[in-house]
Amino acid sequence: MIRFVLSRVLQSLVALAILSVVVFILARATGDPLHLILPMSASEEDYAYARRYLGLDRPYVEQYFSFVGKAMTGDFGTSLRARRPVSELIRERLPNSLRLALFAMCVSLSFAFPLGVLAAVKKGTWIDRAAQVIAVLGQSLPTFWVAIVLVEFVAGRLQWLPAGGISGFASYILPGFTLGWFVVAGMMRLLRSGMLEVLDSEYVKLARVKGVVERRVVWLHALKNALIPVVTFAGIYFAILVTTAIVVETVFAWPGLGRLAYEGISSRDFPVIQAVVLTTAAIVAVVNLGVDLLYAVIDPRIRHAR
Predict the structure, then answer these.
(1) Does 296 fall in a domain?
(2) Structural domain tally of the chain?
(3) DSSP summary character for residue 7
(4) Mind listing the pLDDT tens digit for each residue in 237-253?
(5) Does residue 42 form part of some domain?
(6) Which residues lie closer than 8 Å to 260 by C-beta, 6 or more apart?
(7) Which domain holds residue 220?
(8) Which of 22, 79, 101, 131 might form a disulfide with 119, Cβ 3.0–4.6 angstroms?
(9) What mean pLDDT is predicted for residues 266-281?
């Protein structure tokens, strides 16, 4: 088990190292940020001084290792747009994104579990077909389109819920539903296929022969064994919810990491871009590591196979 954990930690560190190089290069490929910082009347001397002050005149290799060394201590530099330490911006925005992702995951689970189980138990009926339609819609409708429709009708015309910002529990509903919409589809289909496989297994048939109540067979014996792939799926999608919320947070004016990334890209604020990407990558790495460990605990064959 220790060897398995160490191998997964090493893989995560290698992935983060590679990503740090990629994001460092891409952040500087967006153009010269000084054009957005300095006024139009700035002279060449002003540009040269600003480059020296920000360390942009140093070789790229030196800039990269300086960036990595400071990032390991939580120092991502100063935002070129907000003129504030980037670490402060991350600390302000990250909790909002995590809370929204957690709410979206709870919404997803509350819909996906009953729909997936019922679709498997009622295979071939109208319930199964309705669940399949929901799954197709969830995977085909773009997230930005769902977000815009909800803002326009639910928040705009009907005025049932706030259109954006954080103003209490009600403000979580629309962005949380939008984020969780596509997760419902994938998780429901995965749970349905897992349940169908388990319901056709020998030990479930034996439980029925012994006279075990069907409800107990489904919700205790079958569901327990169908949850192994769902655990992996849920962990991965929680990380995806945090990292892909840029569209939803922008549409709903949600002050999270996604909106911070959008603001950084719009203003070529490469310290912010680098910090957001590395922070979200670290979240993905930690969540995936946790999922792998949980998966190994649930199914010992995984850790022994490695």
Answers:
(1) yes
(2) 1
(3) H
(4) 777 777 667 888 888 88
(5) no
(6) 89, 90, 93, 272, 276
(7) 86-305
(8) 131
(9) 84
Tell me how far apart the alpha carbons of residues 16 and 14 are, in angstroms, rounded to a whole number: 5
How far is residue 174 from each of residues 106, 112, 159, measured CA to CA in Å? 14, 18, 12
Give per-residue pLDDT as tens, 172-186.
888 888 888 878 888
- Res 302 pLDDT > 60: no
**Of 175, 121, 105, which Cα lies nearest the Cα of 144?**
175
Per-residue tokens: 245: 């919320």
At residue 202, the 3 state secondary structure works out as: helix
CATH number at residue 199: 1.10.3720.10
pTM: 0.77
CA atoms of 253 and 197, how far apart (whole Å): 43
User: For residues 293 and 5, is the Cβ–Cβ distance under 8 A?
Assistant: yes
Name the E strands within 41-97: none
In a domain, 106, yes or no: yes
Which tokens sit at 287? Answer: 């969540």
Q: Does the structure show a pLDDT above 70 at 267?
A: yes
306 within 8 A of 4, measured Cβ to Cβ: yes
CB count, 10 Å around CB of 9?
12
Token duo for residue 304: 């022994």
For residue 290, being part of any structural domain is answered with: yes
C-alpha to C-alpha distances, 295 to 187, 241, 299, nearest whole angstrom:
16, 20, 6
**Cβ–Cβ < 8 Å for 100, 175:** yes
